[in-house]
Amino acid sequence: xxxxxxxxxxxxxxxxxxxxxxxxxxxxxxxxxxxxxxxxxxxxxxxxxxxxxxxxxxxxxxxxxxxxxxxxxxxxxxxxxxxxxxxxxxxxxxxxxxxxxxxxxxxxxxxxxxxxxxxxxxxxxxxxxxxxxxxxxxxxxxxxxxxxxxxxxxxxxxxxxxxxxxxxxxxxxxxxxxxxxxxxxxxxxxxxxxxxxxxxxxxxxxxxxxxxxxxxxxxxxxxxxxxxxxxxxxxxxxxxxxxxxxxxxxxxxxxxxxxxxxxxxxxxxxxxx
Length: 273
Prior knowledge:
- The protein folds into 3 domains: about 5-85, Protein of unknown function DUF3822, N-terminal domain (Nucleotidyltransferase, domain 5); about 90-135, no CATH class; about 165-270, Nucleotidyltransferase, domain 5 (2-Layer Sandwich).
- About 30% of the residues lie in helices and about 30% in strands.
- The chain has helices spanning about 60-70, 95-100, 105-110, 140-145, 155-165, 205-215, 235-245, 265-270; strands at about 5-10, 20-30, 30-40, 45-55, 80-85, 90-95, 125, 130-135, 150-155, 175-180, 180-190, 190-200, 225-230, 250.
- The strands form 3 sheets. Strands 1-4-3-2-5-9 form a 6-stranded mixed sheet, sandwiched between helices.
- The radius of gyration is 19 Å and the shape is globular.
- The chain starts with a strand and ends with a helix.
């Protein structure tokens, strides 16, 4: 059966000096998109140069990603580059444990008690005092290191967790970033990060359940905790009314105007500001 592939290619940007531009590539099981931002002229709009989507199919995912990169040679230019990987296969660990107690072979063994991946396909990202280990698909690591050498590879969840940590509230804060069929749930109290995980949803009430379960599990006070929503507009707007039946403070996540773009993943926006 042929794999459905929706391709929308935007015209490449004419660039004299790649050192003046920053590239952000967003990779998920559903597609690949890429954005260029002029670092010398911050008023110049961000340009989306790639926008591809495909049917979710693990057996063809790597080849879809490879084709998307090779079909857009501007991705291979010498930019400073962030690659953001959207994946639910994340494992958080204290940085001290990673530094002091484990080598990569042991980390891989630990990671594989929950998920399943080869050592070369497990990426690491430090976020504060923690390290997030994450993977998406077999052989992706070698492909990205070969074709986009020198890029900073990070997880979507790691980017959001790092950006929101300074907004933690004395009485607790829960952030929910709603994406297609998945929601990033990140919670803090006054001491720091409590939880950062990806949950699946079919009905918006599933998101409400995940949020309230987080409030309950971490013993956050519903009359004081701040719950903030970002992501798919129609879903988050509909959820606010329901959440206000359970917590006193439910609101849309306050973001800089530069990142309020519905067609751009939040993690990408936060990397570009």
